[in-house]
């Protein structure tokens, strides 16, 4: 199981609701979470099959900014 982390602009419950369909389709329900309490709004994806490119594409398609976490 690999873990990918990204900084995002997903910063509230409404944002999470907006991005949920895209992320569920890309990486599967239950395989991701966003830490909205963290100033960088860290998205953590845990999956054997998802690639960073798939995650970035899904989040950007939902209208949010995303970049790899340092």
Outline of this structure?
This protein has 70 residues and is an alpha+beta fold. The protein has helices spanning 13-27, 52-61; strands at 2-8, 32-35, 42-47, 66-68.
Summarize this structure as a short list of keywords or feature phrases:
single chain, 70 residues, alpha+beta, four-stranded antiparallel β-sheet, 2 helices, 29% strand
Walk me through this protein's architecture:
This protein is 36% helix and 29% strand. With 70 residues, the chain is an alpha+beta fold. The model has no long low-confidence stretch (mean pLDDT 96).
Instruction: Count the beta strands.
Output: 4
Classify the secondary structure makeup into a structural class: alpha+beta
Q: Strand count, sense and closure of the main sheet?
A: 4 strands, antiparallel
- Strand numbers in spatial order across the main sheet: 2-3-1-4
Residue ranges: pLDDT <50 for 5 or more in a row? none
Query: Mean pLDDT, rounded to whole units?
Result: 96
Q: How many distinct helices?
A: 2
Order of helices and strands: EHEEHE
Tell me, briefly, the overall form. globular
Report the β-strand fraction as a percent range.
Answer: 25-35%
Q: For the CA atoms, what is the radius of gyration?
A: 10 Å
For the termini, the CA-CA separation is 20 Å
Helix content: 25-40%
